[in-house]
Amino acid sequence: MESKLNHVQTKQWDQLFVQGNLITLDAGVDAGWGLIPQGALAVSDGRIQWLGSMSSLPEIDPSVDIIDLEGRLVSPGIVDCHTHLVFGGSRAAEWQQRLEGTSYRQIAEQGGGILSTVRATRSASQDALYRAAAARLRTLLRAGVTTVEIKSGYGLDLETELKMLRVIRSLGETSPVDVHATFLGAHALPDEFAGRPDDYLDLVCNEMMPAAKDLATAVDIFAESIAFDLPQTERVLQAAVDLGFPIKIHAEQLSHMGSAKLAAEMGAVSADHLEYLQRPGVEAMARHQTVATLLPGAYYFLGETERPPVEALREMGVPIALGSDMNPGSSPLMNPLLVANMGCTLFGLTPLESIRGVTLNAARALGIDDQVGSLETGKRADVAVWDLDSPEELAYLIGHQPCTAVYISGRPVVNEPLDGPPDS
User: What's the pLDDT tens digit per position in 248-280?
Assistant: First the structure.
């Protein structure tokens, strides 16, 4: 080992991670863990240049920065592909109402739910929203998250939606985490448009969405009986496609509408929730390679009983991702390994499926699996290090925080604080 580390290699590397048990999660490794015991991983310019066993390590330049992983488990950085991280206020009182027997639907119909968060978010300053969201993002980072998607959707007017998107942009500028912004103006019908959903969608499609073009990288909609129906959903998604946005959808969460099938046929990169998804929707998602993003935190927190059709998704070869759905009303969850555990215990995924769900398939749900989500040459060197013995333990332990180090583009970041927000 010493002789290898002192030899000179013709190609210079910036960093070399040694003595780690790597799980590559490469889709080409027979869909298994891609385990490399006693492995090494080389990085230059923030990208993975080489990986393999220590015994096959090429000769290296002695000036390379060597990081000894001391036998720890090493995975791709976690990708949280569905969050609502920016919001004002709390919905703890509504949670208590649900515990006392009031349903999520009833609370929403009474003006609570999403609309209560809208009121709190509208009244909060941009700085206050940033600081609260930055603390949540820091929690995710320390838990191994290196890429996160954050949605707007608690503004439901032009000014506040843009305020939220500016906060999301600021988080991406001040945090080492790779932040992706999704415009979710069609999240609910605001009070001032009560009874006039089509008028509100005029605002979403003709004013909000074009104004969000430089701030958001995708568009989402909540398709549900308490939100927007199928024709309205098609209208919003088509407007997004016409503007060049990738599209996503909250689909089949509380009832079956056929919205996942519609979104897949329109080219959606992912359809999320899917508790009430039926066979035609699964088949459409398989045909159009739409990722199924399951959100077990919301299923758990809302006390739902209808499980997503995991067996059908498996059978049809639909990639299954998992997200935290971190939000104040239905999933105040900021632990990606608990998400993975819930994917197993609540939805029947295997540990391998659940960890792929928060890495490679989560990256697919954002359309960035060519960049992150697995340990492969050419991909960004986003790496999480775990004080664990076996890959299965990533989805096994509950409430434990085993992440000991996080590297984004090869840079150690897990203990770095976020700076204050830049000038808007």
Answer: 999 999 999 999 999 999 999 999 999 999 999
Residue 341 C-alpha from the chain's centroid:
16
- Domains, the chain, in order of start with CATH, read 2-76+375-412 (2.30.40.10), 78-365 (3.20.20.140)
Q: Tell me phi and psi for residue 55, to 5 degrees.
A: -70, -20
Half-sphere exposure in the Cβ direction for 56 (13 Å, CA):
9
- pLDDT for the residue numbered 175: 96
Contact between residue 70 and residue 39 where contact means Cβ atoms under 8 Å apart: no
For residue 408, the surrounding DSSP H or E stretch is strand 403-408
Give the pLDDT score at 364: 98
Q: Put residue 49 in one of left, alpha, beta given phi > 0 → left and psi -120 to 50 → alpha.
A: alpha
Helix (H, G, I), strand (E, B) or coil at 236: helix
The alpha carbon dihedral of 229, 92, 143, 349 has a sign of negative
Tens of pLDDT, residue by residue over 135-160, are 999 999 999 999 999 999 999 999 99
pTM of the entire predicted model: 0.94
